[in-house]
Amino acid sequence: MKIERLNENQLRFTVWTKDLPDEDFTIADLAGQTEKAEELIKYMMDKAREEFGFVFDQQPIVVEAIPVNKDCIVFLVTKVDSEDEQDKFHYVNELKKQAIEMAKSIKNGSLELEEDNQVKEEEKAPQPQDEKTGKVLPYMIYSSRNMENFVTAAKVVSDFYVSDNTLYKNENDIVYYLVVSHNRNSDDEFAYLCNTLREFSEPYKFTYTTKYYFEEHYKKIIDGDALQTLAEL
Asked: Shortest CA distance to 227 belongs to which of 173, 171, 112, 147?
């Protein structure tokens, strides 16, 4: 289990199957409102208190359960002000509906990257464009100051992502840049990859010359199979 403090009011918990206490405890169980989910959330609250002094007391919280795949689920736990509570919970209720539907698919062994009837705009394969010329480029770039974020994302996508991708490091500012292509993956798989990377890093604006700039000025950490290598750490 990985716990990250995103800000003074929000934590992110990334939970893998291997973190669960027994074989009967599944990722699908955690996506809905079940006793097992409540048990794990109570455990996470205790860990948050121990590691970050993150105390909830009587303040309302929102718990967002986001199944990433059959082996991983992300919880976002957010303290909310009373005036924001209604809007926040409306959003989370919608998210829970999506999570429960995904959980059903996981249990049935039929998890798909697209919804049956429509693909949400944010889940479509991105069309990365040169911000100067508008030309569509065959790759995306993501940045993070913490390489552990890419390690976490790599483990989430390790069961399907096989395309070329390279990790660079700006040693002056200590920022990592991941260049991902989809030369050996479908558009749907690339969309899923990019959605996952947005959970752990930031999309980076670039032009067709950016990769050449990286080659000249930044240190190349892993060439060609960065995510595949990080997934094994």
From this structure: 147
Nearest to 66, CA basis, from 155, 177, 189, 199? 199
Could you tell me which residues come within 8 angstroms of residue 36 by beta carbon, excluding any fewer than 6 positions away?
25, 29, 30
| Burial zone of 133 (CB within 10 Å; 0-12 exposed, 13-18 middle, 19+ buried) | exposed
| 3-state secondary structure at position 66 | strand
pLDDT above 80 for 191: yes
pLDDT per position as a tens digit, 146-165: 998 898 889 888 888 999 99
Q: Check if the beta carbon of residue 106 is closer than 8 Å to that of residue 27.
A: yes
| Tokens coding 105 | 């698919």
CA distance 211 to 215: 6
Please answer whether residues 75 and 41 qualify as being in contact, where contact means their C-beta atoms are separated by less than 8 angstroms.
yes
